[in-house]
Every structure is written in C-alpha cells, then in structure tokens.
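Entry:
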Amino acid sequence: MISVAYSAGLFGIDGYLVTVECHMTSSLSCFEIVGLPDNAIKEAKERVRASLINSRLPFPQKEIIVNLAPADKRKEGSAFDLAILVSILASAGTIKNREELNDCCFVGELSLSGELRRVNGALCMAAAAKKAGKTKLFLPLENVKEASVVEGLTVYGVKNVTQLVNHFTTDEKIAPTEPSNSDTEKTVNYPDFADVMGQAQVRRAVEIAAAGAHNLLLIGPPGTGKSMIAKRIPSILPEMTFEESIETTKIHSVSGILPEDVALIRERPFRAPHHTMSAPSLVGGGKIPQPGEVSLANNGVLFLDELPEFNRSVTESLRQPLEDGKITITRAAGRITYPSSFMLVCAMNPCKCGYFGHPTHPCTCKKEDIKRYVSKISGPLLDRIDIQIEVSSLAYDEISKKQAAEPSSAIRERVNKARKIMQERFKGERTEAGAEITANAQMEPKHLRKFCALSPECSSLMERAFVALGLSARGHDRVLRLARTIADLDGSENILPQHIAEAVGLRSLDKKYFN
C-alpha cells in the first residue's frame, strides 16, 4: 500500500515542497529511505522506529520503502522525520483518512521518546508549504511563532507523536496557533545616541550614512568613542519594511539563531565579528553552505572593529557582496546565493600605537610602520567605503557636560524622512541584478545620470575635487551618491554646491592616511 505525506526542504533561504511516499509490503522486515537523503535523514529510520515504540504505537514489521521526491534533489537535515512517520502510519492504516493529509505539511525532528524538537528554517518551509497550496502546517511547538507569520496557513504546534496521532484518529484535536502580531514586536533594544557627548561632525556623518545606507570608516585614537558610536547606529536606521523583515528572519531562522519567542525580526541586525574570524565565517561556507556574517547582517549593519587587524583575505572577500548585495557560495553540494545587502561600518586606529596625529599624546610609530599598518586595507576596499571621518579626542568640558545629547529618536525621525524621499524617487527602479533600490547607496551609473544631474557650478566643483583627491570613477560616483543623500536630508530637490562640498569633505582622508 502506498501513502503520501508532504514535508519541506531548504535550499539557501528558499524552501521547497517534498513529497514523502511510503510503500509497504508483507515481505521481509526492512526499512529503506531513498531520494538522495543525507546521513541525518538515513538515521531517521532509527528515530522513527524508537519514537513509535516509545509512544506505544506498533512499528510495522514489513518491508517499508520511503521515497523523498523530487528524487534528483539532495535532501539534508532532520526536518523530514515527522512526515516520514506520518506516511508510515498512513500506509499501515493507523491514520485512515489519507485524503486529509493532502492539505497538510509536516516538519519536525523526532526524539527517541516521541517528542518533537525544533528545526531550523521553519519560516522558509512554511512559506514553501503555502506556495505549494497547503493550508495546514504541523511542526514543533518551538517553531510555531515564526511559522505563524505566513498568512493563509493554519499552523499547529505538536508536542509529541501521541498528540499528532490523536489529532488524526480521535476527537482530541490540536488547537491551531493564533497568527503572530509582529507589528509591535521589538526584538532588540539598541543603545541611544544620547550617551554620545560632543563629536558633532561624526554624528552628522553617521546620520548621512544611515539615511543613504552608505558605508562608513571611523578613524581615531583609542578611547574616542568609535565603537560606542558604531553600536548605536542601528538605533537611527530607518524602520524595516515587512519584506525586509521577512528576508532577515529567514536568514536567521536558517542559521538557527532566531530566538524562540520571536516571530519576525523588526529591528535591523547588528553584527560585530572578531578580527580573528576566517573568510568562510564572514561570507558563508561549509560542506552544506551556511550564511556568513555578511548575510546575517543583511538589511542591517556589519561592524568591523580594528579593521587593519583582520586578515587581508577576509576583508578582500567583502568586495563582491558590497557591490552586488548578495553572495554566491559554490560547493560540491551545489551553488547557493544568500542576500547580503548591509551597511559596512569600520573602525581603526591611525597607526599601530594609535596616536598618530594626536594633539597631546606622542606617536611612537616609525613612518614605515604607519604606512605598513594602514596598507593592510586595500585600495579597492577603501574605494567602496563612502564616508571616512576622523573621531578626535574630546576636551574635558565636552565630557563633563551633564545635559544629554540629541537622542536616537530625533535623528531617526530625520533619517526616516529622507529614506521615504528616496523610496518615492526609486519606485520601479531596480539594479542590474534585479534588486529593488530603496536607498541612494544602491544607485548604479544609470540612476546617477537620472537622479543626480549637476548644475554648471556643481559640476565645476566636482571636477576640482576629482583632480585634487585623485578620485577613481567609483569614488566619483560615491561622492555623487553622498551629495544626493545630503540634499535629501535638507529636503532639497536638486543637488547644490554646499551638498557637493560636504560630500567631498567626507571622503578627504585618503591623502592624509592612505597615500
């Protein structure tokens, strides 16, 4: 007798429907799983057998063949356990109404006792089930909150095998989960800019970077507040759209770092990896490719503190995701593309000892040592950083002020206003890769020609800056994007000379530190 149940698999952050077919005959007792299963799925045979026995349900002593279709697509993970068990119970006649299973999708890992364990990527699989026309999803209790975000899908949280079997064979039905109210959900409370004293120029640069999603480099001696400022940047970033929240939540769900009590990530992520990390940890990798820090920071901030201390091969791997907003990982298991549209924020000392250019503290580094230290950052990577700003030491009267500085809420209000102007401007505009443009930093040359037209006065000023700073073509375009953001913050329809001048000033450290 053949029975069919449905489950879902993962490919990157996209889910796909898997048909679980069970063929049972009265031949010799054996249990085989086919359809390109990995080791975790092959071991499901023992988990299914033990969970049935320990749930006081008979395990059929027959020839059992389970096929996972499509059979030409490799399946990974333990999330198919529940669907395999259901297909066996249906084929054995324990679940009699097999037609009822046609609208259902089953996802979950089984313990030997029959309890269900949490799986990664539940949101992605729920979306795949909905897309395939399924109306009911059964999965572990720990996953119900994220899965309930998908509209039009009834989600059932299952505690154990006994509860699931009773749902299909008795009147003891599992209560469906109420849809999550994620609109008011706040997942992270970031520190406030009210704690940052002084640094008016740096605060202005950070506000511009947040408004236009521009990459930012903070340079200054130790103790000036570089890390403190960077950690507060998410508190002024524009509010996430629903689509951005879904995409970010999918990545965190697949990685297994989504908190159990969170249905949807509503605050932009902030990732700050240590400088000893490897390139695969940053961009993603592994035998079965997993998202790296650049993807976990998608729609948020990737903060690299002490930038020159990172291995050069690690920082160079940032170049492609910074340009494309996505990262493609190729392994024997296949090619997987993860989104990686993030705002890069870097901090560094001006030299090894940290006090080059300090007004009172003498620098102990030799000229060659300073050059060697800053040369760890390649020109191509530096060219992709829109804003370079010095964070200077504070005077005592700035530190001792009792009055709080401007809070993040006030800055975020201006940033939101500017970002709405950008979103209205870029309606229907897309990059060559097909990504929707929502911020000025994402503009490509064709968009610059369309939205960044310069007056003769602005063009003359831009030409002088281009020659004086020795800008590349990419550097020229980044100054234009910055000027467009500054104009948006001012509420100006056109780019004016003062916007060009301020944008140039935010990229003027090349000559001082990197030449």
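DSSP finds 22 helices and 18 strands in the chain.
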